[in-house]
Write a structure and sequence with these properties.
The structure holds two protein chains of two kinds. Chain A has helices spanning 36-52, 67-76, 94-106, 127-135, 188-196, 243-256; strands at residues 2-6, 9-11, 17-18, 25-26, 32-34, 55-61, 80-84, 112-116, 139-149, 152-158, 163-169, 172-176, 200-203. Chain A is of the alpha/beta class. The chains are: A alpha/beta, B alpha+beta.
């Protein structure tokens, strides 16, 4: 079985601040990590590798520094890694990104493609389904559980208030939720091998068969008019005492704020 | 020489950091308070391959190097000194002794399960009457047919009772002095091998420290590690490596205390100002950071020398001497900067101060380090 997992290097948004004037992310000095949903997707692929045997390739589009997340994937147990890196790819929106990734995936063999649901720096949730459309294969999004039976994948698809159990004949693309699993740690030996024994294959514009009108900034129909920061709600307080004490607590708090 | 970590070392450091914060730190306070061995941490370390970092893959290890292992001890000790010494004693005393001095059969039988994450190791040299004077061993081993008969006891043994495999030193020829000491591999559960009650310690309280008692304990002749009469050399060369581990533990404890202190001084207000605004605070922080960095390079340098197969005993002694004294001084200053809160358990630095002290004592006291260093000058 051949599995391709798409991963993205993102700023760790738990440590990121928003520029109050421009409304954009301040990325300086913020550590880069593997996007959490993508990491769950990779873990799902690695579990299939452990359970039924699979060849897992990881692929990322990004600057040369994105090499680090691909090495991390190799250190977790992926078999091969591809980095799509070229100035012609930069400034891409979801359409151009999915066109580029799909063009690279066409060069590889696959039975199953896994992407994260969405990236924590953009939150669009569009790239995965778009890749499936470019490739002309079915996709199932919001996967919180999956298994392989014969030539089918059985997926538990999450909604806010319910879930669906869907099956689809391979090849298929699924988008993974972070809740899918608890990703494994890299191993120290895996890290050393990822740098000393493995290779991250870099593909540029010339390596892909894709229309220039569909890649990079020029191939991106999306125009961002304005972004602004939303004020963050304070986390709530959970009271775990008896009913009477809890009610009294709430009354006291409301009085404190002159609401009663 | 370039003083930069390679990309693989940096990524390994990140792994150890994440592991320490997620898997080790949540247990640290309880481990200390209840003198409780942190099995949860040890099992996780076994799962992730942290108990075999510097050993070859062919033997079941991770195929990394001493420097990577040192980074693991450092990162884990930042949050829990107890977990740091469990890792250090297992790796650089027990496993490394077999790796350096064992034959192929012993490596397969005893080393592989230690470094592939199935078993835990321990190293027993110290006796009631043989501390710094390690040559004064009283434990005896007598050859009896196809077996060795061991009698005697060892004290203050790290990972005692919890470990599966023990490197034990005993006299095979009392008249020959240090040339009469031999090393043995003894497994937990061997009849005649029992443990005294756990010691109650000032620091590293979750680490299991007990007496090992041997009463007519019989082990196969194949459990002799290295040649008969070569035990003293095996002990000393193994301890040379162990000292880099303890130096890394000291470094980590100091860094952990400084991290907590930097956070505290920014929040703590006196005279309507965070105490970080006061020059005394700033100067003490600056001094601590400089001392930590000075120690760091001694520690990394000793590890790099060991990895390069160059002599490193003097450098390991200097690293341990400096890092342990630095850790005691730095943790003391961190408690002082915390004021009254520093004396309170939930602020953690008092634990770190208690944990730091042992690094000046075990695996060779600071005085022994000075003997080793000056001997290299006066040769």
């Amino acid at each position: 079985m051949k599995i391709i997992v798409c991963i993205k290097q993102v700023p760790d948004t738990t440590e990121v601040r928003i520029d109050p004037v421009k409304g954009t992310l301040i990325r300086d000095g913020v550590p880069s990590i593997m996007n959490p949903d993508d990491k769950a997707g990779l873990e799902a692929a690695l579990r299939l590798k452990d359970e039924i045997g699979a060849h897992v390739s990881v692929i990322s589009m990004g600057p040369r520094q994105a090499d680090a997340v691909l090495r991390e994937a190799l250190a977790m147990g992926a078999n091969a890694a591809y980095l799509l890196s070229d100035s012609a790819f930069s400034g891409a929106d979801t359409w151009a990104t999915s066109s580029t990734l799909a063009a690279a995936i066409e060069k590889l063999e696959y039975d199953l493609i896994i992407t994260g649901r969405q990236a924590i720096d953009g939150d669009t949730a569009q790239v995965g389904p778009e890749i499936a459309e470019h490739l002309g294969i079915p996709h199932i999004s919001y996967c919180e559980d999956l298994r392989i039976e014969g030539d089918e994948v059985i997926v538990k698809r999450q909604f806010e208030d319910r879930y669906q159990i869907l099956s689809a004949r391979l090849p298929v693309l699924i988008t993974a939720l972070g809740e899918l699993n608890e990703p494994r740690y890299m191993t120290p030996g895996g890290i050393f091998d990822a740098y000393r024994e493995s290779e991250v294959i870099v593909w540029t514009r010339d390596d892909l068969t894709v229309n220039t009108a569909n890649i990079g900034l020029k191939g991106s129909p999306t125009r961002v008019a304005k972004t602004e920061a939303k004020s963050v709600k304070q986390p709530g307080t959970k009271i775990e005492t008896g009913v009477d004490e809890s009610v009294q607590y709430v009354i006291d708090k409301l009085k404190e704020k002159y609401l009663l | 020489m370039e003083f930069n970590l390679s990309k693989e070392h940096l990524m390994a450091k990140q792994l150890f950091h994440d592991f320490a914060v997620k898997e080790v730190e949540p247990w640290a306070e309880e481990t200390d308070e209840f003198h409780r061995f942190p099995w949860e941490v040890v099992h996780k370390m076994q799962d992730v391959g942290l108990l075999g970092i510097p050993f070859p893959k062919e033997l079941g290890g991770q195929g990394c190097d001493t420097l990577a292992y040192i980074l693991a001890v450092e990162e884990i000790s930042k949050v829990c000194g107890t977990s740091g010494v469990i890792l250090s004693a297992h790796t650089s005393l027990a496993a490394d002794a077999i790796f350096l001095h064992g034959n192929d059969e012993q490596k397969e039988k005893f080393l592989r399960p230690l470094i592939d994450g199935r078993k835990l190791g321990s190293f027993a040299l110290t006796e009631a009457e043989a501390g710094t004077d390690a040559a004064g061993q009283q434990t005896k081993a007598v050859r009896d047919g196809d077996e060795w008969l061991i009698n005697g006891s060892k004290i203050f043994i790290t990972n005692a009772q919890v470990a599966d495999t023990y490197i034990v030193f005993a006299m095979t020829d009392k008249a020959a002095g240090t040339r009469g000491i031999s090393a043995f591999i003894i497994e937990n559960g061997t009849p005649g091998f029992t443990f005294g009650p756990p010691e109650k310690k000032m620091g590293i309280r979750g680490s299991s420290t007990c007496e090992l008692i041997f009463e007519n304990c019989r082990i196969p002749i194949g459990n002799l590690l290295g040649r008969e009469g070569k035990g003293f050399g095996i002990a000393m060369s193994t301890l040379d490596g162990g000292r880099i581990g303890i130096a890394a533990q000291a470094l980590g404890i100091a860094e952990g205390a400084l991290e907590k202190t930097v956070q505290y001084v920014k929040e703590r207000k006196q005279f309507n100002s965070p105490i970080a605004k006061f020059q005394n605070t700033q100067f003490v922080l600056a001094h601590m950071k400089t001392e930590i960095e000075a120690a760091r390079w001694l520690v990394y340098n000793a590890a790099i020398l060991k990895d390069s197969r160059k002599p490193f005993a003097t450098e390991a002694a200097m690293a341990k001497l400096k890092a342990s004294q630095m850790a005691v001084a730095v943790t003391n200053e961190c408690v002082q900067l915390h004021g009254g809160y520093g004396y309170i358990q939930s602020f953690h630095v008092e634990r770190m101060m208690r944990d730091a002290k042992i690094t000046e004592i075990y695996e060779g006291t600071s005085e022994v380090m000075k003997m080793v260093i000056s001997a290299s000058l006066l040769r």
